[in-house]
Design goal:
alpha+beta, globular, about 120 residues, about 30% strand, about 30% helix, 3-stranded antiparallel sheet, single chain, NE0471 N-terminal domain-like
């Protein structure tokens, strides 16, 4: 499994930039990372229990904390900080970003929420 060689948080644009040792490079918006947090609060406790996150368009990351040699904990400015983002999970978010983002936008629309453009 690839591991990150570089991790940069761009607070102004609210993007976490990650480069992996296989050469892959991803720009993951904070909103995307927040709505796909691996925490039980977001993912639920079993298959099909994921909780749709609404109103996260302007969320940002306050702090990035290492978890051993295999993950990070992201502390968001909405006080969410219970997700442990393993390198494997982050890599998957990068690889599947387009599909997962579209799923999120579609779920918001089905829930009757019109996504605001971040300022």
């Amino acid at each position: 499994m690839p591991t990150p060689t570089e991790l940069n948080l761009h607070r102004q644009s609210r993007v976490l930039e990650i480069t992996f040792d296989d050469g892959s490079h991803y720009n993951l918006p904070c909103e995307y990372l927040r709505v796909y947090s691996p925490s039980a609060e977001v993912q639920g406790h079993g298959p099909g229990q994921r909780v749709l996150q609404i109103g996260k368009e302007e969320v940002n990351i306050d702090k990035i904390e290492p978890v051993g040699n295999y993950a990070i904990c992201l502390h968001f400015d909405d006080e969410h900080n219970t997700g442990i983002y393993s390198w494997e999970y982050l890599y998957g978010l990068g690889q599947n970003q387009e599909e997962l983002w579209q799923t999120y936008v579609t779920e918001l629309e089905k829930a009757g929420h019109k996504r605001k453009k971040p300022s």
